[in-house]
Amino acid sequence: MGTSEELRRITMTPAARRALAAAGRLFYDRGIHAVGVDLIAAEAGVTKKTLYDRFGSKEQIVVEYLADRDERWRAFLAERLDAAPSAPRARIRAVFDASRAWMSDNGSKGCSMVNAHAEISDPAHPAHAVITGQKQWMLDLFTRLARDVEGLGPDAADRLGRTLMLLHEGALVAHGLKVFPDPVAHARDEAEALLAEAAER
Questions:
Q1: CB distance 81 to 95 below 8 Å
Q2: Cα–Cα distance, 164 to 182 (Å, whole number)
Q3: Closest by alpha carbon to 183, among 85, 110, 86?
Q4: How far, in Å, CA of 15 to CA of 17, rounded?
Q5: Among the listed residues 13, 132, 21, the one whose alpha carbon sits nearest the alpha carbon of residue 69
Q6: DSSP for 64-82?
Q7: 131-165 per-position pLDDT tens digit
Q8: HSE-CB of 43 using CA atoms within 13 angstroms
Q9: pTM for the whole structure
Q10: Contact, 115 vs 28, CB < 8 A?
């Protein structure tokens, strides 16, 4: 996360890890505001006191949930980028393919960051920096990849990076809404068409 240095994180004990796993399932499936600490404790098989001893507050549980999900996504994506050919177009395709695979296994309700932002729009909330930091990181990634596309000047590459980000994020939202089949693959194909057009200029 772009602001990871400013985030307070906790040391995970086995009980805290069980609680975080339970909170992650519940927050993603039901929404953050709909899930109380009592339910998390019951699902994790720990006491409410243990939760507060480890996390201090529900806000911190939310921070840990989103930060953990972000860290797992970045590791997942890094593996796929490492395995992709070095050509910028192949690496951009790999990002969309990684998102498609991640959504298949971890994202039936769409992007956890977008969903969380619908409930946490206050910049003062400690989880807000996790959400916006993750999206800034994705924009930076797409922009770096776009800058590697041969023949694009800096301004054109920055515009392409933003466009790729919009395609990607729109696909994640459409996936959660289930408005049409396989939106991430559709966004990937549109991204490839944009890249082919850029190469012809």
A1: yes
A2: 17
A3: 110
A4: 5
A5: 21
A6: HHHHHHHHHHHHHHHHHHH
A7: 999 999 999 999 999 999 988 999 999 999 999 99
A8: 18
A9: 0.91
A10: yes
């693959």: which residue's tokens? Answer: 185
The label of the residue with tokens 């956890």 reads 112
Q: Which two tokens stand for residue 62?
A: 């939310």
Count the residues in the chain.
Answer: 201
Q: Name the residue type at position 47.
A: T
Residue type for position 174: A
